[in-house]
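Contributing new records

If you add data, match the layout below exactly. Sequence lines come first and carry their own label; structure lines follow with theirs. Keep one chain per record. Anything else will be rejected by the validation script.
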Amino acid sequence: MNLKELKNEWIQQFESPLIIAGPCSAESETQMLQTAERIKNSGATVPVFRAGIWKPRTKPNGFEGVGVIGLGWLKKVKENYGFLTATEVANALHVQAALEADVDILWIGARSTVNPFTVQEIAEALKGTKKIVLVKNPVNPDLALWIGALERLLGQGIENLGVIHRGFSTYQKTKYRNTPNWQIALDFKNEYPSIPMIVDPSHICGNRTGLFSVAQEALNVGYHGAMIETHENPDEAWSDAAQQITPETLAEMIAKLETRTTGIEGYEGVMESHRRVISDIDMQLIELLSQRMKLSEKIGAVKKENNLAIFQPERWKTITEYATQKASETGMNRDFVEKLFKAIHEESIEIQNGVMINK
Protein backbone atom coordinates (compact mmCIF):
# COMPACT_ATOMS: atom_id res chain seq x y z
CA MET A 1 0.00 0.00 0.00
CA ASN A 2 1.14 3.56 -0.69
CA LEU A 3 -0.03 6.95 0.60
CA LYS A 4 -2.40 7.51 -2.32
CA GLU A 5 -4.25 4.27 -1.53
CA LEU A 6 -5.03 5.20 2.08
CA LYS A 7 -8.75 5.70 2.73
CA ASN A 8 -8.28 7.52 6.04
CA GLU A 9 -11.82 6.83 7.17
CA TRP A 10 -10.92 8.01 10.68
CA ILE A 11 -11.81 11.60 9.75
CA GLN A 12 -15.42 10.59 9.16
CA GLN A 13 -16.06 10.10 12.88
CA PHE A 14 -15.76 13.87 13.40
CA GLU A 15 -18.04 16.73 12.44
CA SER A 16 -16.57 19.16 9.93
CA PRO A 17 -14.47 21.07 10.69
CA LEU A 18 -12.52 18.98 13.19
CA ILE A 19 -11.35 21.28 15.99
CA ILE A 20 -8.49 20.25 18.25
CA ALA A 21 -8.06 22.70 21.12
CA GLY A 22 -6.27 23.06 24.43
CA PRO A 23 -3.22 24.71 25.96
CA CYS A 24 0.16 24.92 24.31
CA SER A 25 1.60 23.27 27.44
CA ALA A 26 0.18 21.30 30.31
CA GLU A 27 1.16 23.35 33.37
CA SER A 28 -0.89 21.92 36.22
CA GLU A 29 -3.83 19.61 36.79
CA THR A 30 -5.97 22.59 37.74
CA GLN A 31 -5.07 24.50 34.58
CA MET A 32 -5.88 21.48 32.40
CA LEU A 33 -9.21 20.68 34.04
CA GLN A 34 -10.36 24.31 34.15
CA THR A 35 -9.51 24.81 30.50
CA ALA A 36 -11.35 21.62 29.55
CA GLU A 37 -14.38 22.52 31.66
CA ARG A 38 -14.65 25.98 30.12
CA ILE A 39 -14.31 24.61 26.58
CA LYS A 40 -17.10 22.15 27.38
CA ASN A 41 -19.32 24.82 28.93
CA SER A 42 -18.69 27.29 26.09
CA GLY A 43 -20.73 25.18 23.72
CA ALA A 44 -17.85 24.97 21.25
CA THR A 45 -17.84 21.87 19.05
CA VAL A 46 -14.46 20.52 20.17
CA PRO A 47 -14.09 16.72 20.15
CA VAL A 48 -10.33 16.65 20.84
CA PHE A 49 -8.41 18.26 23.71
CA ARG A 50 -4.70 18.86 23.09
CA ALA A 51 -1.80 19.74 25.38
CA GLY A 52 1.96 19.74 25.05
CA ILE A 53 3.52 17.37 27.59
CA TRP A 54 7.08 17.63 26.27
CA LYS A 55 8.04 20.97 24.75
CA PRO A 56 11.04 21.18 22.40
CA ARG A 57 12.46 24.66 22.84
CA THR A 58 14.82 26.57 20.59
CA LYS A 59 17.15 27.47 23.46
CA PRO A 60 18.03 25.56 26.67
CA ASN A 61 17.02 26.50 30.21
CA GLY A 62 13.45 27.33 29.26
CA PHE A 63 10.26 25.51 30.17
CA GLU A 64 10.38 22.17 28.34
CA GLY A 65 7.14 20.66 29.57
CA VAL A 66 6.05 18.90 32.74
CA GLY A 67 6.75 15.44 31.34
CA VAL A 68 4.95 12.16 32.06
CA ILE A 69 2.95 13.57 34.99
CA GLY A 70 0.98 15.64 32.48
CA LEU A 71 -0.30 12.50 30.77
CA GLY A 72 -2.25 11.74 33.95
CA TRP A 73 -3.89 15.16 33.70
CA LEU A 74 -4.81 14.46 30.07
CA LYS A 75 -6.39 11.20 31.19
CA LYS A 76 -8.49 13.05 33.78
CA VAL A 77 -9.64 15.48 31.08
CA LYS A 78 -10.89 12.50 29.05
CA GLU A 79 -12.56 10.85 32.03
CA ASN A 80 -14.20 14.00 33.40
CA TYR A 81 -15.27 15.75 30.19
CA GLY A 82 -15.37 13.09 27.48
CA PHE A 83 -12.80 14.62 25.13
CA LEU A 84 -10.49 12.56 23.01
CA THR A 85 -6.92 13.60 23.82
CA ALA A 86 -3.89 14.56 21.74
CA THR A 87 -0.23 15.35 22.38
CA GLU A 88 3.11 15.66 20.59
CA VAL A 89 5.71 12.90 20.67
CA ALA A 90 9.35 13.43 19.76
CA ASN A 91 11.03 10.09 20.51
CA ALA A 92 10.32 6.43 21.30
CA LEU A 93 10.04 7.04 25.07
CA HIS A 94 7.37 9.69 24.48
CA VAL A 95 5.48 7.25 22.26
CA GLN A 96 5.58 4.49 24.86
CA ALA A 97 4.37 6.79 27.64
CA ALA A 98 1.59 8.28 25.50
CA LEU A 99 0.34 4.87 24.43
CA GLU A 100 0.34 3.63 28.02
CA ALA A 101 -1.73 6.68 28.98
CA ASP A 102 -4.14 5.85 26.13
CA VAL A 103 -3.73 9.19 24.35
CA ASP A 104 -5.99 9.05 21.30
CA ILE A 105 -4.13 11.21 18.78
CA LEU A 106 -0.37 11.68 18.54
CA TRP A 107 1.36 14.24 16.42
CA ILE A 108 4.94 14.61 15.27
CA GLY A 109 6.17 18.19 15.58
CA ALA A 110 7.87 20.35 12.99
CA ARG A 111 11.30 20.04 14.59
CA SER A 112 11.01 16.25 14.49
CA THR A 113 9.63 16.00 10.94
CA VAL A 114 12.79 17.64 9.65
CA ASN A 115 14.91 14.73 10.92
CA PRO A 116 14.36 11.36 9.14
CA PHE A 117 16.19 9.47 11.92
CA THR A 118 13.81 10.87 14.54
CA VAL A 119 10.75 10.10 12.42
CA GLN A 120 11.96 6.54 11.83
CA GLU A 121 12.45 6.02 15.59
CA ILE A 122 8.94 7.28 16.29
CA ALA A 123 7.47 5.18 13.47
CA GLU A 124 9.09 2.01 14.77
CA ALA A 125 7.83 2.73 18.29
CA LEU A 126 4.31 3.19 16.88
CA LYS A 127 4.48 0.10 14.65
CA GLY A 128 1.04 -1.25 13.84
CA THR A 129 -0.84 1.23 16.06
CA LYS A 130 -4.47 2.03 15.26
CA LYS A 131 -4.07 5.45 16.88
CA ILE A 132 -4.44 8.55 14.70
CA VAL A 133 -1.02 9.98 13.92
CA LEU A 134 -0.66 13.51 12.53
CA VAL A 135 2.52 14.96 11.04
CA LYS A 136 3.30 18.67 11.15
CA ASN A 137 5.15 20.14 8.21
CA PRO A 138 8.93 20.47 8.75
CA VAL A 139 10.18 23.85 9.94
CA ASN A 140 11.84 24.45 6.58
CA PRO A 141 9.80 24.49 3.33
CA ASP A 142 10.64 20.97 2.16
CA LEU A 143 7.69 19.02 0.75
CA ALA A 144 9.76 15.84 0.29
CA LEU A 145 10.55 15.67 4.03
CA TRP A 146 6.88 16.02 4.87
CA ILE A 147 5.88 13.24 2.49
CA GLY A 148 8.84 11.11 3.60
CA ALA A 149 7.71 11.24 7.23
CA LEU A 150 4.32 9.83 6.28
CA GLU A 151 5.93 7.14 4.15
CA ARG A 152 8.04 6.04 7.12
CA LEU A 153 4.92 5.77 9.28
CA LEU A 154 3.04 3.84 6.62
CA GLY A 155 6.04 1.55 6.29
CA GLN A 156 5.44 0.50 9.90
CA GLY A 157 1.79 -0.30 9.25
CA ILE A 158 0.39 2.97 10.59
CA GLU A 159 -2.62 3.82 8.41
CA ASN A 160 -4.69 6.38 10.34
CA LEU A 161 -2.66 9.33 9.12
CA GLY A 162 -3.15 13.06 8.69
CA VAL A 163 -1.07 16.22 8.44
CA ILE A 164 -0.94 19.58 10.20
CA HIS A 165 0.04 22.73 8.34
CA ARG A 166 1.73 25.02 10.90
CA GLY A 167 3.73 27.27 8.59
CA PHE A 168 7.43 27.48 7.81
CA SER A 169 10.31 29.35 9.42
CA THR A 170 11.81 32.27 7.54
CA TYR A 171 14.53 34.78 8.28
CA GLN A 172 12.41 37.51 6.72
CA LYS A 173 10.23 39.64 8.94
CA THR A 174 6.57 39.14 8.07
CA LYS A 175 3.23 39.48 9.81
CA TYR A 176 3.40 35.76 10.56
CA ARG A 177 5.44 33.89 13.14
CA ASN A 178 5.76 31.09 10.57
CA THR A 179 4.90 32.04 7.01
CA PRO A 180 2.09 29.84 5.63
CA ASN A 181 3.61 29.15 2.19
CA TRP A 182 0.16 28.00 1.17
CA GLN A 183 1.39 26.63 -2.15
CA ILE A 184 3.52 23.94 -0.47
CA ALA A 185 0.57 22.74 1.59
CA LEU A 186 -1.72 22.86 -1.44
CA ASP A 187 0.82 20.89 -3.48
CA PHE A 188 0.68 18.23 -0.78
CA LYS A 189 -3.13 18.33 -0.73
CA ASN A 190 -3.28 18.03 -4.51
CA GLU A 191 -0.88 15.05 -4.49
CA TYR A 192 -2.58 13.24 -1.58
CA PRO A 193 -6.22 14.38 -1.46
CA SER A 194 -7.28 11.47 0.78
CA ILE A 195 -4.96 12.48 3.63
CA PRO A 196 -6.81 14.86 6.00
CA MET A 197 -5.11 18.24 6.44
CA ILE A 198 -5.54 20.39 9.54
CA VAL A 199 -4.31 23.96 9.88
CA ASP A 200 -2.51 25.26 12.98
CA PRO A 201 -3.22 29.01 12.91
CA SER A 202 -1.71 29.47 16.38
CA HIS A 203 1.80 28.69 15.15
CA ILE A 204 1.33 30.37 11.79
CA CYS A 205 0.22 33.65 13.38
CA GLY A 206 2.13 33.69 16.65
CA ASN A 207 -0.60 36.01 17.95
CA ARG A 208 -4.34 36.00 18.57
CA THR A 209 -5.41 38.59 16.04
CA GLY A 210 -4.98 36.58 12.85
CA LEU A 211 -6.28 33.20 14.01
CA PHE A 212 -9.74 33.41 12.49
CA SER A 213 -8.64 34.64 9.08
CA VAL A 214 -5.96 31.95 8.72
CA ALA A 215 -8.34 29.20 9.87
CA GLN A 216 -11.05 30.38 7.49
CA GLU A 217 -8.61 30.66 4.61
CA ALA A 218 -7.61 27.04 5.20
CA LEU A 219 -11.24 25.89 5.26
CA ASN A 220 -11.85 27.85 2.07
CA VAL A 221 -9.38 25.60 0.23
CA GLY A 222 -10.73 22.37 1.66
CA TYR A 223 -8.81 21.71 4.88
CA HIS A 224 -10.52 19.33 7.30
CA GLY A 225 -10.09 21.31 10.51
CA ALA A 226 -7.92 23.40 12.80
CA MET A 227 -5.72 22.99 15.89
CA ILE A 228 -6.12 26.07 18.07
CA GLU A 229 -4.22 26.73 21.29
CA THR A 230 -6.64 27.54 24.10
CA HIS A 231 -5.84 28.36 27.73
CA GLU A 232 -7.95 29.27 30.75
CA ASN A 233 -5.67 32.29 31.35
CA PRO A 234 -3.66 32.92 28.16
CA ASP A 235 -1.71 35.94 29.41
CA GLU A 236 -0.22 33.83 32.20
CA ALA A 237 0.64 30.83 29.99
CA TRP A 238 4.11 29.37 30.49
CA SER A 239 4.72 29.08 26.74
CA ASP A 240 3.48 30.92 23.64
CA ALA A 241 1.13 33.15 25.63
CA ALA A 242 0.58 35.60 22.78
CA GLN A 243 -1.00 33.04 20.46
CA GLN A 244 -3.41 31.38 22.92
CA ILE A 245 -7.05 32.32 23.40
CA THR A 246 -9.68 31.72 26.08
CA PRO A 247 -12.27 28.94 25.68
CA GLU A 248 -15.00 31.55 25.25
CA THR A 249 -13.10 33.29 22.43
CA LEU A 250 -12.58 29.87 20.87
CA ALA A 251 -16.32 29.23 20.90
CA GLU A 252 -17.02 32.58 19.22
CA MET A 253 -14.40 31.85 16.58
CA ILE A 254 -15.72 28.37 15.79
CA ALA A 255 -19.25 29.74 15.46
CA LYS A 256 -18.06 32.09 12.69
CA LEU A 257 -16.04 29.53 10.74
CA GLU A 258 -17.61 28.26 7.52
CA THR A 259 -16.74 24.98 5.84
CA ARG A 260 -16.66 24.78 2.04
CA THR A 261 -17.72 22.00 -0.26
CA THR A 262 -15.09 20.63 -2.64
CA GLY A 263 -17.65 19.89 -5.37
CA ILE A 264 -18.50 22.40 -8.12
CA GLU A 265 -21.65 20.74 -9.44
CA GLY A 266 -23.93 23.37 -10.95
CA TYR A 267 -21.12 25.89 -11.34
CA GLU A 268 -19.03 24.14 -14.00
CA GLY A 269 -19.90 26.57 -16.80
CA VAL A 270 -19.10 29.74 -14.90
CA MET A 271 -15.94 28.25 -13.38
CA GLU A 272 -14.70 26.98 -16.72
CA SER A 273 -15.28 30.38 -18.34
CA HIS A 274 -13.21 32.16 -15.70
CA ARG A 275 -10.51 29.49 -15.74
CA ARG A 276 -10.18 29.75 -19.51
CA VAL A 277 -9.51 33.48 -19.22
CA ILE A 278 -7.02 32.85 -16.39
CA SER A 279 -5.19 30.29 -18.55
CA ASP A 280 -4.92 32.81 -21.39
CA ILE A 281 -3.53 35.45 -19.04
CA ASP A 282 -1.08 32.93 -17.56
CA MET A 283 0.27 32.16 -21.04
CA GLN A 284 0.67 35.88 -21.73
CA LEU A 285 2.57 36.28 -18.46
CA ILE A 286 4.93 33.46 -19.42
CA GLU A 287 5.54 35.01 -22.84
CA LEU A 288 6.28 38.40 -21.29
CA LEU A 289 8.62 36.87 -18.70
CA SER A 290 10.43 35.04 -21.50
CA GLN A 291 10.95 38.33 -23.32
CA ARG A 292 12.18 39.97 -20.12
CA MET A 293 14.74 37.23 -19.47
CA LYS A 294 16.06 37.49 -23.04
CA LEU A 295 16.72 41.14 -22.34
CA SER A 296 18.50 40.09 -19.13
CA GLU A 297 20.85 37.98 -21.28
CA LYS A 298 21.69 41.05 -23.39
CA ILE A 299 22.29 43.13 -20.26
CA GLY A 300 24.51 40.36 -18.90
CA ALA A 301 26.57 40.45 -22.11
CA VAL A 302 27.05 44.23 -21.78
CA LYS A 303 28.12 43.87 -18.14
CA LYS A 304 30.55 41.10 -19.04
CA GLU A 305 32.08 43.10 -21.87
CA ASN A 306 32.55 46.13 -19.64
CA ASN A 307 33.54 44.21 -16.47
CA LEU A 308 30.51 45.48 -14.51
CA ALA A 309 29.06 43.83 -11.41
CA ILE A 310 25.78 42.03 -11.97
CA PHE A 311 23.99 43.43 -8.95
CA GLN A 312 23.37 47.15 -9.21
CA PRO A 313 21.82 48.40 -5.91
CA GLU A 314 20.39 51.59 -7.38
CA ARG A 315 18.63 49.68 -10.14
CA TRP A 316 17.14 47.23 -7.63
CA LYS A 317 15.96 50.16 -5.51
CA THR A 318 14.26 51.69 -8.55
CA ILE A 319 12.54 48.40 -9.42
CA THR A 320 11.19 47.84 -5.89
CA GLU A 321 9.97 51.42 -5.55
CA TYR A 322 8.19 51.20 -8.89
CA ALA A 323 6.66 47.82 -8.00
CA THR A 324 5.26 49.02 -4.67
CA GLN A 325 3.90 52.17 -6.34
CA LYS A 326 2.10 50.14 -9.00
CA ALA A 327 0.79 47.78 -6.33
CA SER A 328 -0.78 50.72 -4.54
CA GLU A 329 -2.23 52.16 -7.75
CA THR A 330 -3.81 48.86 -8.82
CA GLY A 331 -5.04 47.80 -5.40
CA MET A 332 -2.81 44.73 -5.28
CA ASN A 333 -1.19 43.32 -2.17
CA ARG A 334 2.17 45.05 -1.71
CA ASP A 335 3.86 42.02 -0.14
CA PHE A 336 2.79 39.83 -3.05
CA VAL A 337 4.13 42.26 -5.65
CA GLU A 338 7.44 42.61 -3.78
CA LYS A 339 7.83 38.81 -3.63
CA LEU A 340 7.00 38.51 -7.33
CA PHE A 341 9.54 41.11 -8.40
CA LYS A 342 12.16 39.67 -6.08
CA ALA A 343 11.71 36.26 -7.71
CA ILE A 344 11.96 37.81 -11.19
CA HIS A 345 15.08 39.76 -10.17
CA GLU A 346 16.73 36.64 -8.71
CA GLU A 347 16.10 34.73 -11.94
CA SER A 348 17.51 37.65 -13.93
CA ILE A 349 20.68 37.54 -11.81
CA GLU A 350 20.97 33.77 -12.45
CA ILE A 351 20.73 34.33 -16.19
CA GLN A 352 23.32 37.13 -16.13
CA ASN A 353 25.60 34.91 -14.05
CA GLY A 354 25.33 32.26 -16.74
CA VAL A 355 26.37 34.80 -19.37
CA MET A 356 29.29 35.98 -17.22
CA ILE A 357 30.60 32.46 -16.55
CA ASN A 358 30.37 31.20 -20.12
CA LYS A 359 33.42 32.35 -22.04
